[in-house]
Amino acid sequence: MGWDSHPIYLGGKYKWDVIIEKTGTRYVVGVCDSENFNYGAFAGDQRDACVFDSNCFYLTISRNTKITVHLDMNKRTCAFTIDGRRYSEVSTYNLSSKLYPVVSLYYPGRFRIQSHQKRI
């Protein structure tokens, strides 16, 4: 299944983890709007996205680093937790009511997505 088979609609709270299995030089994790998605651009360079970009934080990303995405479609906010440290919420009002999870990374990076079993 591709990323476009799992849309997130307005209403509800969602949470998922991105686990780094092999390190690279840049990681971008979050949500994006599919309407203007540019397949040729990195997730952090998308016009309509809310992402954690490792280039913008001075964090050490290593094997088994866990990046948790907290998306509240009721309040239209997104927040990120990196290895247990939660960062401030960001408004997603500028995004559409239909979003998709997005991850980009540079070679040789590898990740896996761990979904929480229920919508929260």
Proportion of helical residues: under 10%
Q: Quickly count the domains.
A: 1
Largest sheet: 6 strands, antiparallel
- Uncertain segments of ≥5 residues (pLDDT<50)? none
Q: Can you count the helices?
A: 0
Computed CA radius of gyration, to the nearest angstrom: 13 Å
Mean pLDDT: 84
Strand content: over 45%
The number of distinct β-strands equals: 10
Say which CATH homologous superfamily is assigned.
SPRY domain
The rounded distance between the terminal residues' Cα atoms is 23 Å
Helix/strand/pairing category: mainly beta
List SSEs in N-to-C order.
Answer: EEEEEEEEEE
Notes on the structure:
This protein is 0% helix and 46% strand. It is an all-beta fold. The protein has a single domain (3-114), classed as Jelly Rolls (Sandwich). The strands form 2 sheets. Strands 2, 5, 6, 7, 8 and 10 form a 6-stranded antiparallel beta sheet that branches. The chain is globular, with a radius of gyration of 13 Å.
Descriptive terms for the model:
single chain; six-stranded antiparallel β-sheet; about 120 residues; mainly beta; four-stranded antiparallel β-sheet; Jelly Rolls
